């Protein structure tokens, strides 16, 4: 069943026309990659879905309900949750306080301890302040804060950005556990190998337009796409 259906959206920042006729869909439980270089429009697509930068044209339906015109809070309440590129953990709160706060803000949260089971790294860091965490630890905290809200669809915006390769491996393992829990995921990435490991289908975006859509196997085989749009040679 299709849960998220984006049809021909056009999104602007002021007068700058950023997204051109972007269409994509996600089925229940599916992990879909949105691949593209820096500045291709991945973040803008995420922001369009969440109502932060709503499209001026086109439609975005979530379980049949139109999202365009709804506020980010309303969209969040429908079960969509964005883990932004800049991670946004509270720097002066501890890991535990960050998780408890997200727990308090949710309507029907998962138990706090479940997050420590899913992210054992965080268990060891309970009393560390957000600002003292490494990039990878912040990313895990950020994902935990999102997951505790029991989202049915998670938008992950470049989770590997700025992370050391060994940390990327840890993150992949943990996200695999998340994926196994039947959460629907839209994963934006420049790190194509990371996305290939987690996703089954993908879209390639370039200068605000979708230039290819297909299975991960299809994308993997297209050396031309990888070279032209994804900085892999
Ligand atoms: P990145 O990895 O750099 O975040 P991205 O694929 O997520 O890449 P976007 O952040 O969606 O790309 O940016 C798409 C385009 O929109 C870029 O040309 C960028 O310069 C422009 N842009 C992004 N934010 C703004 C803004 N607030 N005002 C004007 N232009 C913006």
Automatic annotation (TrEMBL):
GO molecular function: ATP binding; ATP hydrolysis activity; branched-chain amino acid transmembrane transporter activity
Cleaved signal peptide residues: none
Transmembrane portions of the chain: none
Family, similarity comment: Belongs to the ABC transporter superfamily.
Domain annotation ABC transporter: ranges: 4-232
Organism: Natrinema zhouii
Superkingdom as given in the UniProt entry: Archaea
Record lineage: Archaea, Methanobacteriati, Methanobacteriota, Stenosarchaea group, Halobacteria
InterPro entries: AAA+_ATPase (IPR003593), ABC_transporter-like_ATP-bd (IPR003439), ABC_transporter-like_CS (IPR017871), BCAA_Transport_ATP-bd_LivF (IPR052156), P-loop_NTPase (IPR027417)
Protein name, as recorded: ABC transporter ATP-binding protein
Entry keyword set: Amino-acid transport, ATP-binding, Nucleotide-binding, Transport
One example of a Gene Ontology biological process annotation: L-amino acid transport
């Amino acid at each position: 069943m299709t849960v998220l259906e984006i049809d021909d959206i056009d999104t602007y920042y002021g007068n700058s026309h950023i997204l051109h006729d972007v269409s994509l869909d996600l089925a229940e439980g599916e992990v879909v990659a949105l691949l593209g270089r820096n500045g291709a429009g991945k973040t803008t697509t995420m922001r369009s879905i969440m109502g932060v930068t709503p499209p001026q044209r086109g439609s975005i339906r979530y379980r049949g309900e139109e999202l365009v015109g709804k506020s980010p809070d309303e969209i969040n309440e429908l079960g969509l949750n964005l883990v932004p590129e800049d991670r946004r953990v509270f720097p002066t709160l501890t890991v535990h306080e960050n998780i408890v706060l997200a727990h308090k803000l949710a309507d029907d949260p998962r138990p706090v301890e479940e997050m420590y089971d899913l992210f054992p790294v965080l268990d060891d860091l309970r009393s560390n302040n957000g600002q003292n965490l490494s990039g990878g630890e912040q990313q895990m905290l950020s994902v935990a804060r999102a997951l505790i809200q029991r989202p049915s669809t998670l938008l992950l915006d470049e989770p590997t950005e700025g992370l050391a390769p060994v940390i990327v491996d840890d993150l992949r393992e943990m996200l695999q556990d998340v994926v196994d829990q039947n959460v629907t995921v839209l994963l934006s990435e420049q790190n194509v190998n990371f996305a290939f490991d987690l996703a089954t289908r993908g879209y390639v975006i370039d200068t605000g337009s979708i230039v290819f859509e297909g299975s991960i196997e299809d994308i993997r085989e297209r050396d031309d796409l990888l070279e032209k749009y994804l900085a892999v040679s």
